[in-house]
Design a protein that fits this description.
This protein is of the alpha+beta class. The chain is built from six helices and four strands; from the N terminus they run E-H-H-E-H-E-E-H-H-H. The chain has a four-stranded mixed beta sheet. It starts with 9 loop residues before the first strand and ends with a helix.
Amino acid sequence: MLKQTPKPELTVWYNTRCPVCDAGISWQKRRLIEAVQAGRIEFRDINLEPAALGRFGASLEDIRRRLHATDAAGRLLVGADVAIAIWQATPGEGWLAVLFGNPVALPLTRLAYDRFADLLYAWNRRKGRW
C-alpha cells in the first residue's frame, strides 16, 4: 500500500536567483527545519517550475518580485502575507506576525514590503540575474 504524503500547511515559492531572497529563505528553512522535514512547510524555487502558480494568474515575474505561497486550503498568499504566515509557523517569531499582521499595522506592512520588493526586483534586474 502506498503511503500518502500529507499536503504541506504552507508551500512558499521564492526566487533563488535573488541573493537576498535566497539568503532569507535559507535562514528561515534552518529555523523551520522540523516543519520542513515533517512536510508541513515546503520551500520551492520558482525558477525550476515557472508555471507553478499559473492557475492563480501569477507569472514568473510576479513571483520573482514578491514571495508567493499556497496554504493547505489551496489559497494564494502574496508578499507580506507570506512573511506573516512564515513568522506564524516559526518558533520564536510569532510575535512578528502579531506585530506586523494585526489589522492596524497590516496595510503599512504590505506597503513597506511592496516598496522593498520593488527596489529589490529592480536591483536584481540591473544585475542581470534573470
